[in-house]
Every structure is written in structure tokens, then in C-alpha cells.
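Intended use. Records like the one below are meant for learning the mapping from a protein sequence to its folded structure. Do not use them to infer anything beyond what is encoded.
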Amino acid sequence: MIRGVVDRALPISRQLIGAHSASTARAARRAPTRAAAMPAPAGDAMSGFKKPAVIFFDCDDCLYKNDWKVANMLTRKIESFCAERLQMKEGYAYELYKKWGTCLRGMQQEGILNCPELLEEYLEYSHDIPLHEHIGPDPELRAMLQSLDPSIPRWVFTASIEPHARRCLELLGVADLFEGIIDVRAVDWVTKHDADAYAAAMRIAGVDDPSACLFLDDSTSNVRAAKKVGWRTVLVGTHARDCGSKIECAEADVIVDRVHQLVDVAPGLFVGNVAPAGAGL
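Structure written out for the chain above:
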């Protein structure tokens, strides 16, 4: 079981948020380090930073990669609900996603989805997908997470809802390795495009220094927003979903193809023996 789940029904102690240090601003100007799968560590790209107080992991297309199969299923379900239930024009749901960070936030901001009952219907319908067909146990991921410095708390920070993220973690076989799940409810429905989401995540995790937060996400927009508030950032994924072109993101301190490669670029975060990404178990 995950040690803690954050939602409206489960209050959690919160801390005030402080200002980030000048060293974070200097780090933001550094060129990102890119890591390819390799048989041996590539050096510690995080050696210039102080030890993080917390690590936030995105869930979908970050903790797992499957050529966006789950993302495409979610997109189809959302499009279906919006077209059939809300009578939206075809493709508008995806336009809202691109503009606001999630279709849900776009509908809320544009006054399309303000009824609580309809909101719950939307969330249940859009996340009713066969995750087990595309996500399975990942021993390499589990070994990597278990080898992280145990004094650094790990949280899942997702724009999705807690039940969906929990299902993903259980299928991956890593649900017991996180302090909890910070989902879209926990941050008052704002997306990771919004600075308020990062402030809420820090309060929940009990951290008051933005520069002490390490964030892994597959979205360049989210990475840019996180860097803007002073977090240290790792972009997970090197090619874009829509066009397949190579991703560039100056706001990423490090760019890796898979989350497993964190051990290659930041070995200082790990204790004990952990195999380099792709080396097998």
C-alpha cells in the first residue's frame, strides 16, 4: 500500500513556502544534460546541486512508457464524453488540453463543466480503461526506486486522479515505494502549468525550499512551469507525442529517455548497488 494518499477527505500537515535561492536561478541557466541508455553511469549531472529534500515523479508516460497507448485511450474516452455527453465539436477536447494542461481544467475555466455530479461522471467515465493491457510489473523500475537514498521522500505528482495513478503504480509493482499521491483534487484542480500546483505539492510534502525539490515529468510545459518556480527538473522522454520530433527543453536540468536512467545521470541520489539503466537485473 502507498503510505499516504492525498485528497480532499484526507487532510495532511502543510508548511509555508519560502523563496528559492540564487543558486537555483544559476542552475536554471545551465544547458540540460542528455542521457542515452548506456552500460555504465554517465557521471553525476546533479553533482552541482544540493541534496533534494523531496523527489516528485509524474505518473503517466513518466514512470512507464508504452508509446502513449494509455494516453491515447484516455484521449479517446475524453473525446467521446465531450462529444456525446457535452455536445462539443470534434477535436475541441484536445484543444482544451493543449491550451490549459488538461481538458478538465479547460472545461472548468470556460464554464463547460461546473456541475459536481457531471464532474464525477466525467472522471469515472474517462478513466475507465483497461490499464492492465498496457502496463505490467517493472522490476527494473522497482530496483531503481528502492535504491534511492531512503532519506529523500518520494511522491507521485499527477494531473490525473488518485484512483488512476494508484492503479498504474499497482500494475507496475511499485505502489509501496511512495509517500503518497498528489493528484488534481489535492491541488484544487489546477494543472501543472500553474505555479499554484507546485506550491500545493510543496505544502503537502512539507517542503519550504523550491530549490530542494527534484521533479521528473514527460511534459516540457510542466518542466518549464516547475523551473519557473525554482524546482530542479528532469525531462523524461526525448521525442514528442504528436509528431515524433526530438524534444528540446532548455528548462530541463537533465533530459533522459526513460525514468530508469536517473541512476545514470544522478548516481549521487542512490545508495547501495543499483544496475545502470538497461543493464538488466
